[in-house]
Write a structure and sequence with these properties.
Blueprint lengths: L2 H11 L3 H16 L4 H28 L20 H7 L3 H4 L3 E5 L6 H14 L4 E5 H13 L3 H8 L4 E7 L6 H14 L4 E6 L13 H12 L2 E5 L5 H8 L1
Parallel strand pairs: 1-4, 1-5, 2-3, 3-4
Bound molecules: adenosine-5'-diphosphate and magnesium ion (MG).
Magnesium ion binds next to helix 6 and strand 3.
Length: 246
């Protein structure tokens, strides 16, 4: 067996899968640049580490379950003036995740709440955090199904595995009593343990409308807003602007 074949086999044996394909090119780079043995070792290992890291990040992006990819780079702060680029950039050191704090975006439809939440979350994934995006209604449904199966605790623990949970569009429809209770169980489990980004079209004063049970609404709100940054977004709907521009 020639040496290159032997090296390939050893790479496969050690599960250094990216090296098997990249080896000829890396060898060529070493030759061309007259790399030292140490530099070449660094090149080889660096390649494998980067490939594994990229794979992990793209798996985490997939697992996050975003309905669509929205990037902060395409967010237009000239249209949305009730939040500044600096305010958003300040969040990107992810102290809020490390300190288990929450972000709450409140505002009418179309003002960029979901766009900002996904944009910030994509950056969080790049920084190594595990993120899950859920729509509030489907979350309530999922919890209900789990509760009926006697698996609410198990479901909540699986949601607590993520560093950051995005609950999008809370408040579009009212929930029943059991829905309130299940959501309370989840918020309670996440409180001071994981971070939440919440988007809602309703101000806290109107939250009673979708939490039918006042006794549950108050402690949920209490836990959500304690240690949270609240952004009240206003302005014109971007969807409407796009409609009127065309
Ligand atoms: P909301 O969640 O507040 O209802 P979205 O974030 O879903 O609004 O925004 C609606 C649409 O408009 C999306 O396609 C989003 O990308 C776009 N959009 C909203 N605000 C902006 C903005 N300031 N710059 C660029 N696109 C925006
Ligand atoms: Mg939205």
């Amino acid at each position: 067996m020639c040496l290159i074949e032997q090296v390939n086999r050893q790479c496969q044996h050690l599960k250094l899968s990216s090296l098997t394909t990249a080896l000829p090119e890396l060898l060529q780079q070493a030759e061309t640049n007259e790399l030292s043995y140490l530099q070449y070792t660094d090149l080889l290992l660096g390649h494998e580490v980067k490939t594994r890291n990229d794979k992990r990040l793209s798996a985490n992006r997939r697992k996050a379950g975003f309905p669509i990819e929205k990037h902060l780079e395409s967010f237009d702060y000239r249209h949305q003036t009730t939040i500044t680029k600096r305010q958003v950039n300040q969040l990107l050191d992810f102290d809020f995740i490390d300190n288990r704090h929450n972000l709450i975006f409140i505002g009418p439809p179309g003002v960029g709440k979901t766009h900002l939440s996904i944009g910030i979350s994509l950056k969080a994934i790049d920084a190594g955090y595990k993120v899950l995006f859920v729509n509030a209604l489907s979350l309530v449904e999922t919890l209900e199904v789990a509760e009926l199966k006697g698996e609410l605790k198990k479901k909540i623990s699986s949601l607590c595995k993520f560093d950051l949970l995005i609950i999008d569009e809370l408040g579009y429809l009212p929930m029943n009593k059991q829905g309130n209770y299940n959501l309370f169980q989840l918020i309670n489990a996440l409180y001071e343990y994981r971070s939440i980004i919440l988007t809602t079209n309703k101000d806290f004063t109107a939250w009673g409308e979708f939490f039918v049970d006042e006794n549950v609404a108050v402690p949920i709100i209490d836990r959500l807003i304690h240690h949270s940054k609240i952004f009240m977004l206003g302005g014109e709907s971007y969807r409407l602007k796009q409609k009127t521009n065309t």
